[in-house]
Fold this protein.
Amino acid sequence: MKPKKKKKRQFRQTFARLLQGIIPGKSGTATFTGSLESIAILAQEKLGDCILLTPLIRNLRRARPALEIHLIVFSQASAAFFRNDPDVTSVHQAKKQPWRYFREVLSRRFDLLFNTKDHPSTHFLIQSVIIPARFRVGHKNLFHEGLYDRLVDMEYHSHMALKNCALLTVLGIVSSREECRPSIPAMPLPDGLNAFLDELEATPTFGINISAGVPNRLWTIEQWKALLARFPNERFIVLSGPDDSEKKQRLEKSCKNILASPATRNLFEAACIVSKLRLLVTPDTSMIHVASAEKTPVVGLYREAPQDISRFGPYDVPCELLISKTGLVSDIEADAVADAIRRLLMPCKAN
């Protein structure tokens, strides 16, 4: 572990220990009783984490139509994502507009608070303590003990979509594995994209996502070209984030089997395209969860990090996962990805 990362981890653990020493200890085994009219959920920061929280929100709304579902968010990306979700009552930014946050969150009392992180986080622990709530739920962790009325105990490597939905069990709400599938909140689509989606319906198309959140998860443009050259008779489209739009255009111009596609402005537009694809090839990013939401087969490119697959991997879709023997996704060879595509296309491919 890098020294800076190790120091942050040690600080979070020390802070958790401080809270455990100050706050009267809670059992962690209490049963939720009484009415449930409002809930405050501490949502994680990244877009992938947001997608994995959607099944909990959807199931809460299904089971309790009148429930006020308030999301406490810590990034602009998560705020924008959840503001489009019709099942969410309100989105509150903990680090923005402090007076509004005090008025709308800290000056009221929720029936239940849920911390979605299963490891100690300074901001999440602070909010867990200062937000008034009759009952507090967190994930079982040494540094959460004594701070929550109920600690949900699931194996560490359980998929995060299921770990989020574990709150439903605390509330006596039954949900199937399929009902815990992630989803993408709908948004209006531009006319140009609607026309493109109609075009995708006509011919089977593969998709590649060339963007990733960090450099060590990226494949190079030359590697993508090499992969597409192995499938000259198949049609591909390129998906990318805004920062990689120039790379997307270069690929579209240089490879004859790429169909130029409109730039996507948000995850819902990307999801609409992914839903029409025969399969998607992508590094370990939020697009893995988009494919899961749309039930699209996926070839995932991963670093050597087992928890990235077990906790944040594809959710119940046919998949082939390639793991680099190093810390770099770019060390995965194009031939290996091509073979994975062929395996995924085999008849009766098991999930």
Remarks:
- Residues 205 and 280 are 9 Å apart (CA to CA).
- The longest helix spans residues 3-22.
- The first strand starts at residue 38 and ends at 42.
